Amino acid sequence: MPTIRRHVLAAALACTAVAGFPAFAQADYPAKPITMVVSYPPGGDTDAIARLFAEKLGQRLKQSVIVDNRPGAGGAIGNGYVGRSQADGYTLLFTPNPFTTAPLVMKLSGAAAYDVLGGYEAVINTATQPLVLVAFAGLGVKTLPDLVAAAKAGKQVSYASPGAGSPMHIAGAWLNKAAGVKFTHVPYRGVGPSVTDVVAGHVDTAWVTVGAVRQYLNTGKLVPLAIADAKRSKLAPQVPTLAELGYADVVVGAWNGFFAPKGTPAPVVKKLNEHLNAILKEPEVVEKLAVFGALPAGGAPEVLTQLNQREYAVMGKAIRDLGISAE
């Protein structure tokens, strides 16, 4: 075969191979188990929701999806691990929104360092979780105006959060500034301990997710005072928003979603997104998410990209203005 002809044929075959790669990768993916990294310990809401998605995704993909808990540094250890993983679709990150704010409130380096805006491919925003301010029933307040009035009259009021720099901490600090009060922040290691102590009256109030306190709201052991979302939540429609109570600028939510390492093939991201969108429509999944105080979200990867970017900007400004730090 003449040399020129051989070169032309080789080039044509190479182009065909490159052009056909996305379809091939999408059709054959996944060819082995997928690892779903959760940057928090087993037992919490994030871990439980992740395992729900792992089971459902594994069934649809006909491949094992293994949950790998990598806690530490407020979630940064697991986040950083995924950011440095091979971009082939076999390592995914399931995370709540401290993913976005952790680098803004912590000095991250080494294994904990990661690029929030440029280091990942967004896959899907799976759910949102409204934040609610609850009070110990024995505190004697029924509304947020009651609590603010008591604080301004000299009463010392404390509020718990699941950790310094968390969305709950930000909500509390932001409300302090907006209402002109000084509720004392008491950081805990996770939602569970903070709920236990507010139910027992060891701390006056707490910012938490609705699912974490539903049973105590139903029995009257805790009093709901306000929701931090822009609109009332269907999970607790009787609870007014901070905006309704005169604090229109204080809007802090919680969400979770999937990210993949930067450079993960677009067809793989698309396939994952399509399956997860379908999973979010399953009645069983909607019901189980509600138990955790979560509402299904979904949509294209771009929805999560924009949410992440917007939160980085808005929460970043709030964190700077309020002087919030996890140190």
TrEMBL record:
InterPro entries: BUG (IPR005064), Bug_dom1 (IPR042100)
SUPFAM superfamilies: Periplasmic binding protein-like II
Residues of the signal peptide: 1-27
Gene3D superfamilies: Bordetella uptake gene, domain 1, Periplasmic binding protein-like II
CDD domains: PBP2_Bug_TTT
Keywords: Signal
One Pfam family recorded for the sequence: TctC
Family of this protein: Belongs to the UPF0065 (bug) family.
Matching PANTHER family: BLR1237 PROTEIN, TRICARBOXYLATE-BINDING PROTEIN
Name of the protein: Tripartite tricarboxylate transporter substrate binding protein
